[in-house]
Amino acid sequence: MNSDYRRPLLLILAIYLLLAIGHGIATPLFEAPDEQHHYFTAAVIASSGRLPTTKDDFNQLTLQEAAQPPLYYLISALIAKPLGVEIEEKMLWPNPAVQLGAADSPQNINAFVHTREESWPWSDQFLIAHLLRLQSTLIGIGTLLAIFGCAKLVWPSVSERALLATALVAFLPQFAFLHGSISNDPLIIFLCSAAIWQLLRMWYGTMTWQRLVLLGFTIGLAILSKTAGLVLLVYSLGFVSLLTWRKQQGYSTGKKLQQMIQPMLAVTIPALMLGGWLLWRNWQLYGDITAANQFVRLAGGDRGYSLMQVLRETPGLWTSLFAVFGWFNILAPKWVY
Fold first, then answer.
1. In this structure, what DSSP letter does residue 305 have?
2. Nearest 5°: phi and psi at 330?
3. Are 146 and 46 within 8 A, CB to CB?
4. pLDDT tens digits, residue range 221-250?
5. What are the start-end ranges of the H helices in the chain?
6. What is the mean pLDDT of residues 103-113?
7. Maximum separation of any 2 CA atoms in the chain, in Å
8. What is the pLDDT of residue 106?
9. Quick one: pLDDT band at residue 251, thresholds 50, 70, 90?
């Protein structure tokens, strides 16, 4: 089994594809959180050829996603533009009776009213939307391969553990649901997984300049995908610093600190070469390199939550790790959690 892992790995990936594509087909369009905003942000870029903003009289169909890093939307726009994408508000028919987040309600669980136009065979804008869902599904394969690669580095002689690690993620209902929807989350998840695989290669192998620079470019792409890419940069710099410190046994503290600088620069410079312009753009547009103030503004302003109030929301993270569908209003049976 140790050397013959390819067949079970391909089986895991195939089952994942069936699950994620199944979610993408079964879930009515725009019945995943903010899915319509992700779609229309890509549509605005495809039709105008420019990045959207949340300044002045911006397109309300994009809402806060217009302030998101653009990489996912640029890729989606490349898919949509040849097919003649249009910004059609008629695609959305809000359900006035829905109670979003009310998982105890057996009725009105859809945020939108759906018509036969969405049915198979898909055409026009509905076809584009399903292609963007498929894009998320295919990105998920990259994440699973990165997870398998990480586990192989940790347990090089026990392929069963690497397969188990991959399957645990692949078969999470939430993973399949997310990767069957239009969202920039699959891209940032993949890039973070790829970065962790690169870090582990250096931890268990050698830290070369080529690997450090490649890691920097991966982080740069992550910064262009979601603000969490900045957190990945900080985490990676801490990891590289620890690795450098560990490999400098016998040197003085001053010498160790000096040896840390070059590897950290090898990661930071390519990361900022790719993502730095976006931070500057956000500062110029919003006075905030992360554009987080736009999310706060469009959500109704600072609600003044205390740390304890935020921590009380954390049980929702547990349930959403496993299975929360729709607009947080469809739960699995209690035993799942």
1. -
2. -130, 115
3. no
4. 999 999 999 999 999 999 999 998 877 766
5. 6-26, 35-48, 71-80, 124-154, 159-170, 173-178, 185-204, 209-223, 228-246, 253-286, 292-298, 307-311, 315-322
6. 75
7. 72
8. 66
9. low
DSSP string of 88-155, one letter each residue: -GGG--B-TT--TT-TT-SS---SB---GGGSSSP-HHHHHHHHHHHHHHHHHHHHHHHHHHHHHHHS
Count Cβ atoms below 10 Å from residue 210 Cβ, excluding itself.
8
**Gap between the Cα atoms of 168 and 165, Å rounded:** 5
Q: What are the C-alpha distances in Å from 301 to residues 59, 62, 236, 292, 295?
A: 19, 18, 32, 11, 9
Please give the structure tokens belonging to residue 67: 């302030």
Q: Is 330 helix (H, G, I), strand (E, B) or coil?
A: strand
Tokens coding 186: 């699959």
Mean per-residue pLDDT for 136-157?
97
pLDDT band for position 254 (cuts 50, 70, 90): low
Does the pLDDT value for residue 41 go beyond 60? yes
For tokens 């990361």, the residue is 271
Q: DSSP assignment of 70-84, as one string?
A: SHHHHHHHHHHGGGT
